[in-house]
Amino acid sequence: MDKQTLRKYFIYMVLLLVVLLLINRGWAFFKENESDKKSDNSLAEVYNAYTLSGMRAAREKVFNYAEILYNKDVAEGKTDKKFRGFTRIDYCSKAIAKYKEEINSIDELAYYLPLFFIAMVVFALFVSISFGLRAISPLDFEQRATSFKN
Predict the structure, then answer these.
(1) What is the pTM of this model?
(2) Which one of 76, 107, 109, 135 has the largest count of C-beta atoms within 10 Å of its C-beta?
């Protein structure tokens, strides 16, 4: 691995980190109204989004509001699909857009953090595979031991 390639991957990793931190800052600290600022002001509440329990709670909260929207559409006859897979994802995105007061930005961040984790793992696998495949080279057997010295 030459220095130029390492420098390039280092720059990519720094840019990815900066983008993720900007997204995090945007979700955690820039609020649309003052009521969200007052309720999400504690530092412990902001970093609760990074815990597994915080992610589960946010997912359940978003799923509950998505199910409300789904049941409303089923009652009106707008959909006949089951609440699974891509339909659930679609209704979750609609719920996040519609229920901004109930689903605050910290819950939204906690809901999307697993996607960021998956993206970072895929990127890390791609980089490690590219490094590993470049390291593989044919073995050189041209030098032979012909004499031994005591």
Answers:
(1) 0.57
(2) 107
